[in-house]
């Protein structure tokens, strides 16, 4: 009987290659690369097809902006080489080395630059898990800067729930002076929340009155 019998569909699962491990090895193997990223402190080589499959920015870059080029050499001046290597590791393997808040914050700029939306959500979740009264206003600024809508709404809710504590903190005053539009956003959100609560109370009172 064949080892790949239809009666036992799971018998050949051990023959399925480990795609993440294969791509991890591909990332390490520089012999077949066709893209070179140039930094002040060195170079990193990569595979165009992998970059295109994972990032719409790279796809547009290689199919439109650089379509007629033979050699793909790209200078990177706004991202540290170590951070960029971490981003490439994610592109190849779907993993990052750490979910620590301070680590993922360093990734936000390249994550947004190359539109790695799934990783952006992961970063947002890691940042949210460590929100405090002391860092809430800074978190909101960060969420607004990198257009992290879910983190922004959750942080606004958190600030509303801890409004007196947060707005009395020195960090809030600094944020208010540096980012007046963010402070205005907080005030508007607070008014909206209070307005909804008043409306709910009013409707409940009317319902009780008619019963």
TrEMBL record:
UniProt cross-references to CDD domains, sorted A to Z: BTB_POZ_ZBTB_KLHL-like
Organism: Microctonus aethiopoides
Domain BTB: 33-100
Entries under Pfam families matching the protein: BTB
Name of the protein in question: BTB domain-containing protein
